Amino acid sequence: MPAQSMDQLVALCKRRGFIFQTNEIYGGLQGLYDYGPLGVELKENLKKSWWTKMVYSRDDVEGLDAAILTNKKVLKYSGHEDTFTDPLVDCKDCNNRMREDHIKDSKCLHCGSSNLTEPRPFNLMFKTNIGPVSDDDSYAYLRPETAQQIFTNFKNVVDATSKTIPFGIAQIGKAFRNEITPRNFIFRVREFEQMELEFFVKKGNDEEWHKYWVEERINWWVEQGIEKDNIEVLNVPQEELSHYSKATVDLMYKFPHGVEELEGIANRTDFDLGSHSKNQDELDIDAKINKNKESNARLAVQDIETKAWEVPYVIEPSAGVDRGVLAILNESYKEETLENGKKRVVLAIKPHLAPIKAAIIPIKKNDSTIVDFSKDVKDGLQKLGLGRIVLENTGNIGKSYRKHDEIGTPVCITIDFDTLNDRTVTVRNRDTMEQQRVDVQDLKDLLKDLLLQ
Fold first, then answer.
1. pLDDT of residue 181
2. Which residues does 244 contact at the CB level (< 8 Å), separation at least 6?
3. Alpha carbon of 220 to those of 215, 225, 227, 381: distances in Å?
4. Is 388 helix (H, G, I), strand (E, B) or coil?
5. Backbone phi, then psi, for 217, in 5-degree steps?
6. What confidence category does residue 287 fall into, taking pLDDT thresholds of 50, 70 and 90?
7. What's the pLDDT at 292?
8. Topology of 1-68+143-270+314-336 in CATH?
9. How far apart, in whole angstroms, are the C-alpha atoms of residue 381 and residue 197?
10. Helix or strand or coil: residue 376?
11. Cα(70)–Cα(135) distance, rounded to whole angstroms?
């Protein structure tokens, strides 16, 4: 059973070093978090799994890592300057600010007052100045999404790789949104990371590809350990679609605070490439292109048979890394009652996502022979490149087991006095708590089988 409350996850994350409030010693900053020693491993493993699935396992996707600072013209023609807003309301009694669409019964969420201002649009993008002079012409934006840098690099990637549609460009990176009310731990924050794919297809094939990517993304989340029954498929109503979207499907997950979006798969049509292409009058292209007289690019592909230029449609699966981490933590959190009546907390994380792959535990921490042997075992397994292996040199086997159950380590390997004689070790499974005696030389294959399954 997943976690019963967000408080359980927040407490575990701080206690065990997954996630901390940023700048906590100075009171923190709302909507900003730091990933600790275990959190950074879990986060990187989730990103690695996504990248492997999206890029390495396909021949029709290329990778990109674009700049965070974004030319203001990009976000002007993408529509973000005009549409990337939330309705902001102030409470005149307690001076708190909130989103209008979060308010119930026209009352302040903080003090219950009805003395509220009229809603007004609030742009979510962070501005910053570039260069030594601060004026109205020298500003740029911190990107509010990773997608636009993919679109502006479309021609560069096509020219460099000779890709033809259908093909995609994948990117993992930071994005920034000045949320009015960040909330629910790392679910809604002001600095976050996105895993986005822009998959370019021929107009007319877009609906088929949209369905394909919805199924692909559901299956991937199931592979990460999310129960399929905990994912709801929501077809976003027409009146709620983004300005660029023909259709959007949201994968909704049962987070501790309620059912909310884990990933969105949007059919963005030809809006983005068309918006960043130069004036339509200069092109022989049938597309919805803004009168963009500032761009000098033709973001289009040429049909091999007809030789006509066409702006591709794009299907965009977009997932938040932080929301993914939160879902994985929630899904894997378990509290069990053992036969002796004691409670056991365990993170049943899939082995490929586990922050620590194996813990090597010498039975006596002050015995140099056993400790040195343990270090050799640890170093040998670390060289496999499967992830982080740790030496847990505490001398307390039971305490070490409990710790590694709680942080999701798939196996603990105990080195004892018998090991020095017969070169066998005790391997304990996190999920079953079963123990088996294994020859040291078999550990590498055992760990590979466990982590690469």
1. 81
2. 78, 79, 266, 268, 269, 271, 272
3. 9, 9, 11, 28
4. strand
5. -70, -35
6. very low
7. 62
8. BirA Bifunctional Protein; domain 2 (3.30.930)
9. 34
10. helix
11. 17
Contact (Cβ atoms closer than 8 angstroms) between residue 123 and residue 266: no
3-state secondary structure of 27: coil
Please, which residues have CB within 8 angstroms of residue 284's CB and are 6 or more apart in sequence?
Answer: 308, 309
- CA dist., res. 203 & res. 225, Å (int): 35
Closest to 376 measured CA to CA, from 360, 387, 393, 395: 360
Residue 102 has what pLDDT?
79
* Chain centre to alpha carbon of residue 443: 32
Q: What is the mean pLDDT of residues 59-68?
A: 96
The matching CATH number, chosen from 3.80.10.10, 3.40.50.720, 3.30.70.240, 3.40.50.800, for 354-451 is 3.40.50.800
Q: Which residues pair with 123 in a beta bridge?
A: 85
Q: What is the DSSP letter of 349?
A: -
Query: Cα 195–196–199 angle (5° rounding)?
Result: 150
315-363 tens-digit pLDDT: 999 999 999 999 999 999 999 888 787 889 999 999 999 999 999 999 9
Q: Which of 335, 45, 3 is nearest to 185 (CA)?
A: 3
- Tell me the per-residue pLDDT of 370-413, one tens digit each, with 9 for 90 and over: 999 999 999 999 999 999 999 999 889 999 999 999 999 999 99
Tell me, what amino acid is at 320? G
